[in-house]
Amino acid sequence: MRAALQRLLALVRRDRLDRELDDEMAAHLELAERDARAAGLSAEEARLAARRSFGGLDQIREAHRDARSARSLEHFWRDVRYGARAIRRTPAVCAGIVLILAVAIGANTTMFSATQAILLRPLQYGEAGRLVVVMHGGRHPVSLANFDDWRRQSRAFSSMGAAEYWRVNIGLADGAERLLGLRVSPDMLPMLRVPPLLGRLLDSGTSAAADEREVVISHGLWQRQFGGAPAAVGQSIQLDGEPYTIVGVMPPSFVFAPFWAVGAELWAPLPRAGVTASRGGNSLRVFARLAPGVALTQAQADIDAVTSRLEAEFPGTNRNVVVVPLKERVVGDTRLAVVVLMGGVGFVLLIACANVAHMLLARAATRRREVAVRLALGATRLQIVRQFLVESLLLAGLGAAGGVGLAALGVRALVALAPPDLPRIADIRLDPTVLVFTTAVSLAAGLAFGLVPALQSVQPAPGEDLKAGRGGSADRRQSRLRDLLMASEIALSLVLLAGAGLMVRSMASLQTIDPGFDPRGLLALSVSVHGTPHAEPSRRAPFFIALADRLAALPDVASVSAINHLPVTGDLWTRSFAVAGRPPARPGEGLSAVYRVVLPGYFTTMGMPLARGRDFTWRDTAGSPGAVVISENLARRHWPGEDPLGKRIVVGQSAADPDARWLTITGIAPNAVSDTWEGGGGSEVYLPYLQTTDYLTGSASRHTYLTFVVRGGGGDMRALAAPARAAVVSLERGASVSDVTTMEEAVGRALARPRFQLTLLSVFAGIALMLAAAGVYGVMSYAVARRRREIGLRLALGAPREQVRRMVLVQSLKRVALGMLVGLAGAAGLTRLMSNLLYGVGPGDPATFAAVTALLAAVALMASWMPAWRASRIDPMAALREE
Amino acid sequence: MSKQKSDLPYGALDLFILRTLDTMGPLHGYNIARRIEQAAGGTMRLSQGAIYPALIRLEQQGWVRAAWGVSETNRKVKIYELTRAGARQLRVEIANWEQSTALVARFLGARS
What's the CA gap between A138 and A154, in Å, rounded? Predict the structure, then answer.
């Protein structure tokens, strides 16, 4: 294969060079002929004379070929062949080296493919670098009225679009399926500059008409529901009970939005009918494309001007609006973790290089005689260094080949392990860029670990090495170098271990967080009746009450309730509120609280017993006095040192409104985590479902569903999923069930990211620890082997074996201690970079550092034990008789 | 190898070529050969074609560089030019030759 390739290459080049030579010779002969004619010869004579003085054409061609071919390529292949032979001579050592390299390069390639997919590769939109998001604080949603004003008044953007989360029931032949979609403004999809695979995008010209019923679907949905038939375009589908026309299908790679609602499969026009000019209900994510030539800072200045005008007009509605590059919004939260992990895996490679360098040093030492002979026979030092480097590069190449193989598995494992909300996780693959990276890294590694032994090998004078088999003058220098390699391996491993140790501590703190409810034995499922007859206000509440009864009647169910948005997994809405008897808030400083709407029994079912007061009952209905339960946080913040029970508040309405419905605080609930696991609990208000008009009569899909929570009697909660679904369908065939999960799974998902980071960093630290152990073992074994005679002499002179063992161990631990000192200093500095990844533990946590140092010391001690023991078992007579 | 080459001391042809390019500036192959023949004044047997293997060797060593040009007869030919490295090499080789010829001269002088 290799030979064939080489021959082919030579053939191609050879043809060209031969042709050039022929051209030159023909021109030469023509000139010679012309001069001969000018000297008075006949045409025939001139031709012959020119030929004669030129010499034999074929001989010249042959000489030309010889002259140009005996060049560097030939030398290179000779080195390669020689190197391959040298590698085959020490198969065990070289197999070890290749294995170490394959693991390190494989880990680096895997991690780089993730870095490449998540951080480096541009988003899959046309000119994605010009796309930005414009949101409150760069991440909080925007109201429709503000979006309209920004779009009309700003100058810095060539277009601006908005998208709204859309949970939608799709009507199918066999019941309903609940899908994730987005409602988008007319400019939204065209702005992304991704042409549809089939059909067209939403018709931006006419969608000002509010009742546009068009939808663009994803490639996945098209495959799943329509078998990929082109005729799907133009068909009608039932969405939330309304007919929509499919106008386009997006290509398979299309993902929108990239940082939230990532799994959206439907894009339909944002409804505008009946939308008030309210700036309070923030539900839109606003995207924009920078106009040509406009920089990010200019765009921000433009938006600042627009929003400060609006803020003056509508106080409290337009503060802190930030323009953030879309890419930054997508990967911003992930960047630090990726960079830290990439750094960690880079350390693994460095440790591997140190290991391999040592193995090659030891191997080079045994070949010193060979080098001396070759030097004596006239090889130049450069030739020998090149020979050693070619060998190292060969080893690196083999390691890289193995590494790519391992990375193919690694990437698959990575994608399988990764939390589903990791941005762009599906893009992780071994692409050409990754392979270029691997090649570059392997070359660099090959040079790094190859150069040291290569230069060492030509250091001593040849005469000395020809005479002495071992123990030349280069010994001391060499052993210092080995000590250095060992110490640096220890130092690098310690840094990695410290990082992993901090992640373990952080994970432990995360797991001890009290969510405020008891996640064990809880099943959650969201039930929507949107688009079914049971969505009718008169039938909706009876349906949910009947469903609660059905679920409670299932075997092994202790209690059942329901809520609009479940903590951790659900959405998070906030509402303004006001307290009776207190002065009205100034504009923009209104009070707000997380808005929860529940069925009776919610607190019991969730395992969050009320601190005081009472739970809601089935008698808290529209006809009875308004009741509200507040969280402890809210109670403490607004009634410090007072008893809030019996106090009255109004939620979502103005206190000045004569029709305001005043609610009496009837209970105080424990704080439950609001949305993010580590975010803790917020100020929350719980309202009884049967008193909440929006939910009882509102026709929007967000008001026609509830999330049921079912507490079991201790069995496997997943087993309840199927009977629970059946209970829903038995009441309403068209109702959709989604997000069926146990709360323990939901908590697990909330911790998926830190766990993923922990897993990766632990794997890297584990590899580092093993490599460091192998390094210590290798260096110490080698040191003992070289001191065999000296140790034999000591034993012969009566040194106890115990003392010899201790001597080797002390020698080893001195170097380990040196490495640890450097490592601790490095860890103290480097772990500070990851402090944003940590929870409940500081970057330089002494307990963690002590623990990992002890672990590393124990491992190093174990790795030195074997060589030390072997040193103590040296037979003095045999050792002294050698040579 | 061509037997005519044995009539020249090893390395002399390279020296001639470098020297020719040094004094004459860029030339094509035929003119280089003619110039060497003229300088030798008929005292040397050289196949003109022998300069081509020498030229490719010098080119690969980076001492001359070639560019395509057009001959007086309107044919495509390579025009050769001395590089900086080539100029340096020429000085080294001249020094070497002077040393060698001086040595040979002294040796022959001592014998007679």
Answer: 17
